[in-house]
Amino acid sequence: MAGQITCRRVYEETSPDDGKRVLVDRVWPRGLSKEAAHLDEWLRDVAPSTELRRWYAHEPSRFAEFRRRYLAELRDPGHREAAGHLRELAGHDDVTLLTATRDVDQSQAAVLAEWLAGGGS
Q1: Global pTM value
Q2: Neighbour-count burial of 102, counting CB atoms closer than 10 A to its CB (0-12 exposed, 13-18 middle, 19+ buried)
């Protein structure tokens, strides 16, 4: 049975409903200690490539193209192992995908949640 997948900012308070807390950013969030993050895992290898992240720059007009490119990256060998591990976690537990991004709905966490809900293909 697959768990529930949610997305939140890593700076928000933890919740008993979080399940496994997984940071999906490539870069550690500014001003946050590892203890304060209360993470179960940091899967930086599932995050978008540095090149894609810089190109996107969280410009809302680029989100659709970012989503397309990021989904393609998830099939690349560099992302495949981390993506498979995340898929396995989500298949067994509730998972909260965490990001430092201000607009969670237009972030890699949202793309990952949709990808996982769709079977990760």
Answers
A1: 0.91
A2: exposed
Digit-by-digit pLDDT tens for the chain (121 residues) are 468 999 999 999 999 999 999 999 999 999 999 999 999 999 999 999 999 999 999 999 999 999 999 999 998 887 888 999 999 988 888 999 999 999 999 999 999 999 998 865 5
Rg of the chain on CA atoms, in Å: 13
Decide: 21 and 99 in contact? Cβ < 8 Å. no
User: For residue 11, what are the contacts with CB-CB under 8 A and spacing of at least 6?
Assistant: 29, 32, 100
Are 83 and 57 in contact by the 8 Å Cβ rule? The answer is no
Q: How many residues does the chain have?
A: 121
Tally the domains of the chain. 1
Domain that holds residue 64: 5-117
